[in-house]
Amino acid sequence: MRGMIVGRFQPFHKGHLSAVKYMLSEVDDLIVIIAASQQSHQKDNPFTAGERYDMIRHSLVDELKDITRVIIVPANDVKDNGLWVAHITRLVPKFDVVYTNNPLTEYLFKQAGKEVINTPFYERKEYSANHIRELMISGKKNWRQLIPKAVAKIIDEIDGVTRIQTVSSSDKS
Amino acid sequence: MRGMIVGRFQPFHKGHLSAVKYMLSEVDDLIVIIAASQQSHQKDNPFTAGERYDMIRHSLVDELKDITRVIIVPANDVKDNGLWVAHITRLVPKFDVVYTNNPLTEYLFKQAGKEVINTPFYERKEYSANHIRELMISGKKNWRQLIPKAVAKIIDEIDGVTRIQTVSSSDKS
Amino acid sequence: MRGMIVGRFQPFHKGHLSAVKYMLSEVDDLIVIIAASQQSHQKDNPFTAGERYDMIRHSLVDELKDITRVIIVPANDVKDNGLWVAHITRLVPKFDVVYTNNPLTEYLFKQAGKEVINTPFYERKEYSANHIRELMISGKKNWRQLIPKAVAKIIDEIDGVTRIQTVSSSDKS
Amino acid sequence: MRGMIVGRFQPFHKGHLSAVKYMLSEVDDLIVIIAASQQSHQKDNPFTAGERYDMIRHSLVDELKDITRVIIVPANDVKDNGLWVAHITRLVPKFDVVYTNNPLTEYLFKQAGKEVINTPFYERKEYSANHIRELMISGKKNWRQLIPKAVAKIIDEIDGVTRIQTVSSSDKS
Amino acid sequence: MRGMIVGRFQPFHKGHLSAVKYMLSEVDDLIVIIAASQQSHQKDNPFTAGERYDMIRHSLVDELKDITRVIIVPANDVKDNGLWVAHITRLVPKFDVVYTNNPLTEYLFKQAGKEVINTPFYERKEYSANHIRELMISGKKNWRQLIPKAVAKIIDEIDGVTRIQTVSSSDKS
Amino acid sequence: MRGMIVGRFQPFHKGHLSAVKYMLSEVDDLIVIIAASQQSHQKDNPFTAGERYDMIRHSLVDELKDITRVIIVPANDVKDNGLWVAHITRLVPKFDVVYTNNPLTEYLFKQAGKEVINTPFYERKEYSANHIRELMISGKKNWRQLIPKAVAKIIDEIDGVTRIQTVSSSDKS
How do E29-34 and E2-7 pair as beta strands? Predict the structure, then answer.
């Protein structure tokens, strides 16, 4: 059985990681869609699809060594919700079940006849990408403990803190 | 060191497979870009990005078991050659060297300061996706021996021969 | 003489209906443009163009039986206001007069040399699509009395209340 | 029961007209999709969507007087065949059966679970829009007898012969 | 040496003018990019690219007579910040240095290896296009003293005050 | 009076140059539109909009010294001929007369109420950008005498011959 999860992963954090590990215990293969692949260098979308791919990939290799069962796919947004399921369906390999807590995602995939499973296991508040970005913008250090080491390393390599601070100051002015 | 190869893989054939295996002997990781990801159900692009992802994935798993070192990324076309390198660069993880025999691809990546290596090792004529599609359209059987077993199995599952024959007859009329 | 009216009709309500009937008393034919045809499954745009087409069509058939004089045309948005009049003009049959209360629509069509008539006859406050959507989201029942019966029937068939509640909860989270 | 037919109608001719009349004898309502609505002033697509809407509309009014059962919808192309059925489905009211002789259209709608009926009743050769355009370009007069009177009147009003000759000479040079 | 400055110039004001004159004292040629060229008739983007081109052009001709050293280029937006530098680079003649006070513009061009110079010489508060638009919307007259005479003349010719008031009232309603 | 001329200028040649000089003798200002600004690195469109801008600019500066009367504007294509005049009109400053020998351009601008003048003065055959590109591709030298010196210098600087040969060999393979 093949599962699918969709996220922007701005950035990929420990909540995402434990969700992915849990899903991998339930399915044979897991498709991880990097949504909004065309967005980067924005306050809410600081990292490129390529950077996010590496964040996910390195975090999972650190945990699992062999990530053959994980199928990572960057997907650009379509503005048109009525086309979204068709867009995703032809972009990724076949899947049997969708993991999501987003009501619209659940609604659209159920309408298209897909099985949908809610994922109630990781604490939203602490492990929130939005919260992590806010910490980075405000210059606090404790975002590091909320993300896998591999992700912190990538953010350091690209000087992601400077980037997100720059981007968010431009958005304001 | 990380290499990158770009192709439409319509379909992924034995020439592609031996090229990928050769490159994996030279680099640490290999990015395989599925170009024209938005195209399908056309005479020259019969298969969806998702189907092509599975063709590549299953062929490599059959050969290698662990495909952790292979990074598959579907990429939609941009019409504008002047933006193409920038488009690919932000969509995929960082890479050091590009494998290509296409003069324009070589030209554009060299202009952007990337190392480019030609890949003179697989016979163009026999292992040509165009030739394989022509065989499928004309109803001959010998396309099967030109592609990995996993690819033939996927084409059978989706009844790809009927699809490509349908598509190409619509193009003509 | 041919008139034209533009709206998103999310949903088509009794105010729209009386406006259309009034205009049909003034012109030979009336073009009804379903604007933002590519939008659906959003808090402000819950219904597809096809659903809105049926809402308008069934409401008018219930009233008029023969709707030969009504020309319904879904039109996708163009972001670029400077192209909007040209976009509409080539998409719909020729028209002589535009009915609108929107200052920008009036401005753009007047600039293009079209006659524009304001439509001061239906009460904005009560018969407002925005108000109707808010009632549906908050779970109240009285939205039904603000729309034609045919529209309520379509909304029930597609379980539109669940859809708009789902969509608006996703927008918040 | 509701049927659907798709065409570019460049221009709408007598073959189209008899097909539509035949379908109206079989279904309750008929959706007529004007494909490639964004194309005009090209050799193969000389007429705007609005002009084509009027051609269809006036031809049917001349025949039927009341065209309440006919639902005309202009639809822009999507390049991506994998999204086409989803694009049409949300743009038009619900339908039960698709009339088409195009193998790809048949394939795509069957894959989406729709019933498809072939329409073997009007002679392709004589009543071909391509043939009619060639006659107009070459300056011959006999295109008039291949199209309904209402269509010829519209083409005269917009001086369509000059337009198609102009467009096709620009394509060549 | 060739410099470049990017702005939306909605409208071109005296602050812009003195900045351009200062830069022309430092470089051989100056590229002036009219950003968001596809936007007009919006509250924040009232003027078309063509109108803004004329505003810049006439203001500089009034000052300099010969504007051979000024290279004006309208550029449409790309939503995707990761492509923006590549988009600008192929659209305009080669340049050596970018003048900007926008942190994101500075960040992106520096990443691409361009020299960036901050322009700390014109008072942001008074000579702000946003402030000028607000004055025009509220019906005050003193916006005239903040813009070059040539710009005021163009705004009068196109009745720009009516336009921006119309547009901003439509945005509100 | 302001004139306008549209071309792709791939590359700008002596025929273009004499046409521009002739027009400048007839009008106060001349708008030169660089069409298909988004295309480059293709067999028929080898040069970027920025390179073409410099070709035109340097050729005219060499001839005229002061090019204040010349208004160069890169314009991206719109696929949709029905929107083309509206697209150009809002992108460039106002103009009174269009110089063109292209029947479709003439048709569209005349429909929009613009005066159109044919430009029968430069020999099409010899000074043809297509012919010049063919000479460059085939490795002959005599393309140099067909273009202004400034253009040849730019083509040498960017090694344009290698580029067009590369691009055209990729198109073939």
Answer: parallel
Residues in chain C with CB shorter than 8 Å from the CB of D76 are 76
Q: How many CA atoms lie within 13 A of A112 on its CB side?
A: 25
Give the tokens for residue C123: 């009460």
The residue-averaged pLDDT of A56-66 equals: 97
Amino acid at D155: I
Q: Output the DSSP codes for B91-102.
A: HS---SEEE---
Nearest CA to CA, how far is B137 from chain D (Å)?
14
Cβ neighbours of E42 in C, within 8 Å: 81
Could D87 and A87 be called an inter-chain contact, meaning their C-beta atoms sit closer than 8 Å?
Answer: no
Comparing alpha-carbon positions, the chain E residue that sits nearest to C102 is E170
What is the residue-level pLDDT of chain E in tens, covering all 173 positions? 999 999 999 999 999 999 999 999 999 999 999 999 999 999 999 999 999 999 999 999 999 999 999 999 999 998 889 999 999 999 999 999 999 988 999 999 999 999 999 886 555 667 899 999 999 999 998 999 999 999 999 999 999 999 999 999 875 43
Q: How far apart are CA B148 and CA B140, in angstroms?
A: 17
What tens digit of pLDDT does each residue of C17-65 get? 999 999 999 999 999 999 999 999 999 999 999 999 999 999 999 999 9
Closest to F9 in 3D by CA, of F170, F121, F133, F162: F133
ipTM tops the 0.90 cut? yes
Question: Do B87 and B78 form a contact (C-beta atoms < 8 A)?
Answer: yes
- Regions of chain D where pLDDT drops below 70: 120-125, 171-173
Which range marks the domain in which residue E108 is found?
2-172
Nearest to A103 among C40, C42, C166 (CB): C166
Are F107 and D166 in contact, with CB atoms under 8 Å apart?
yes
Prediction pTM value: 0.94
pLDDT tens string A79-131: 889 999 999 999 999 999 999 988 999 999 999 999 999 886 555 667 899 99
* Closest CA–CA distance from residue A66 to any residue of chain D (Å): 33
Between CA F163 and CA D44 the distance in angstroms is 33
Those residues whose C-beta lies under 8 Å from the C-beta of residue A50, and which sit 6 or more positions away, are: A74, B89, B90, B91, B92, B93, B94
Selection from C87, C36, C51, C95 nearest residue D37 by Cα: C87
Number of domains in chain F: 1
Q: What is the DSSP letter of C147?
A: S
Query: What gap in Å lies between CA A97 and CA C126, rounded to an integer?
Result: 44
Q: How far apart are CA D48 and CA D38, in angstroms?
A: 7
Going D58 to D62 to D65 to D70, the CA torsion angle's sign is: negative
DSSP annotation of F30 reads: E
Contact B61 A68 (CB under 8 A): yes
Alpha carbon distance A49, D41 (integer Å): 40
Q: Report d(CA E76, CA E39) in Å as an integer.
A: 8
What three-state secondary structure class fits F73? strand
Strand, coil or helix: F152: helix
Q: What is the CATH number of the domain that holds E37?
A: 3.40.50.620
Q: What is the pLDDT of residues B84-140, one digit of tens each?
A: 999 999 999 999 999 998 899 999 999 999 999 988 655 566 789 999 999 999 999
**Which chain B residue has the Cα nearest residue D130?**
B173
Q: Quick check: is D125 in a domain?
A: yes
Q: Are A92 and B50 in contact (CB under 8 A)?
A: yes
Residue D173 falls inside a structural domain? no
Q: Which residue of C lies nearest to E158 if distances are taken between CA atoms?
A: C111
D95 within domain boundaries: yes
- Which pLDDT belongs to residue E22? 93
Residue D77 in domain: yes
Tokens standing for F166?
């590369």
